[in-house]
């Protein structure tokens, strides 16, 4: 899966965020919000995604879920990009948000089974990335991370269809 339309179709219930897309109040988050607020996944130019390649962890849970298709599409279309590398890191299921008002929510649990299957499909395309580093240890680390993350997003037969509230 690498066409944006196909990826967006896998995220039909991801609502546009109603609150500020970056909950933290700082200059970097203000810049991210300026670039991504009021954009749909189809509207974000490639140069903005390139500039915001490492911004996913700074997005609110709702904004992360809503804008993830744009990041997935860009990474699938540009597997050698920094965004693709950071996406693998940012999709790590051990990553989560904290905060008194939000609690700690693992990212993969924000997605429906259909959305998780789309992420797993995109991650399958990144298997070539572990052939890049000449260093065998680094190559094994990338391979391990992609495989674990893909397993996290893989849909099991007992998965529920509805995502957790964001």
How would you sum up this structure, described in words?
The protein is an all-alpha fold and about 170 residues long. The protein has one domain (about 5-155). Helix content is about 45%, strand content about 0%. The protein is built from seven helices and two strands. The chain has helices at about 5-10, 25-35, 45-50, 60-75, 80-90, 115-125, 135-155, and strands at about 95, 105. A two-stranded antiparallel ribbon has the order 1-2. A hairpin with a 7-residue loop joins strand 1 (about 95) and strand 2 (about 105). Helix 4 (about 60-75) crosses helix 5 and helix 6 (about 115-125) packs antiparallel against helix 7. The longest helix has 18 residues, at about 135-155. Residues about 100-105 have low confidence and may be disordered.
Sheet with the most strands: spatial strand order? 1-2
Main beta sheet: strand number and arrangement?
A: 2 strands, antiparallel
The global form is globular
- Distance between the first and last residues' Cα: 25 Å
Count of helical segments?
Answer: 7
Rg estimate, integer Å: 15 Å
Number of discrete domains? 1
Low-confidence stretches: 98-104
**Beta strands, count:** 2
Strand content: under 5%
Order of helices and strands: HHHHHEEHH
Average pLDDT over all residues = 78
Structural class: mainly alpha
Fraction of residues in helix: 40-55%
Tell me briefly what this model is.
The protein is an all-alpha fold. The chain has one domain.
Relevant terms:
166 residues; mainly alpha; two-stranded antiparallel sheet; globular
